């Protein structure tokens, strides 16, 4: 009769547990743990998940660019690259996404110079608000798309100021 040491019994139980969790079937560890890498991103400053109808978007503000991912349902079950805007003249500190008139997707972002928008159809970047005193670096706190406005009205908060854009 063979004697089992405590180490071999623990190893056997651990291997058995791993088999039931799917490690023996080749499922990557990150999927077993409930997370998956999204792209090859480094230097993320801010992110926002926005749901529009049945689509989820992940908007990520990096050190000098903005990446947008869309959720791909079965069989992928992960965010896939949708759009990318690099070499921005204003470095994003906060990001958001809105859908204007149920048709046009726009990325909104705040920087030290003000608040800006990117039209996803044309890739046009424009200012939506710049503070009256451009000598000081402003600190954006939040961008809120006001409800029941078709994405056309915003509440912008920076420093100790809030502003409603109609």
UniProtKB/TrEMBL annotation:
Pfam families: CNH (PF00780)
Keyword Cytoplasm carried by entry: no
Lineage: superkingdom: Eukaryota
Entry keyword set: Kinase, Serine/threonine-protein kinase, Transferase
One GO cellular component term noted in the UniProt record for this chain: cytosol
Enzyme Commission number, as recorded: 2.7.11.1
Transmembrane domains' residue ranges: none
Keyword 4Fe-4S: no
InterPro entries to which the protein is assigned, alphabetical: CNH_dom (IPR001180), STE20_Ser-Thr_kinase (IPR051700)
Gene Ontology MF terms: protein serine/threonine kinase activity
Residues annotated as domain CNH: 28-161
Similarity comment: Belongs to the protein kinase superfamily. STE Ser/Thr protein kinase family. STE20 subfamily.
Name assigned to this protein: non-specific serine/threonine protein kinase
Organism field: Oesophagostomum dentatum (Nodular worm)
């Amino acid at each position: 009769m063979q004697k089992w040491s405590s180490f071999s019994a623990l190893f056997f139980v651990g291997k058995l547990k791993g088999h039931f969790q799917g490690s023996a079937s080749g499922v990557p560890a990150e999927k077993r743990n409930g997370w998956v890498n999204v792209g090859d991103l480094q230097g993320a400053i801010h992110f926002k998940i926005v749901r529009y109808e049945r689509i989820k978007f992940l908007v990520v503000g990096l050190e000098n660019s903005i990446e947008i991912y869309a959720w791909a349902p079965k069989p992928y079950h992960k965010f896939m690259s949708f759009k990318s805007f690099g070499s921005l003249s204003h470095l994003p500190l906060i990001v958001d996404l809105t859908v204007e008139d149920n048709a046009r997707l726009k990325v909104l972002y705040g920087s030290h110079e003000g608040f800006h928008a990117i039209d996803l159809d044309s890739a046009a970047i424009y200012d939506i608000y710049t503070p009256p005193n451009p000598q000081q670096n402003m600190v954006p706190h939040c961008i809120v798309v006001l409800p029941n406005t078709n994405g056309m009205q915003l509440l912008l908060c920076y420093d100790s100021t809030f502003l409603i854009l109609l």
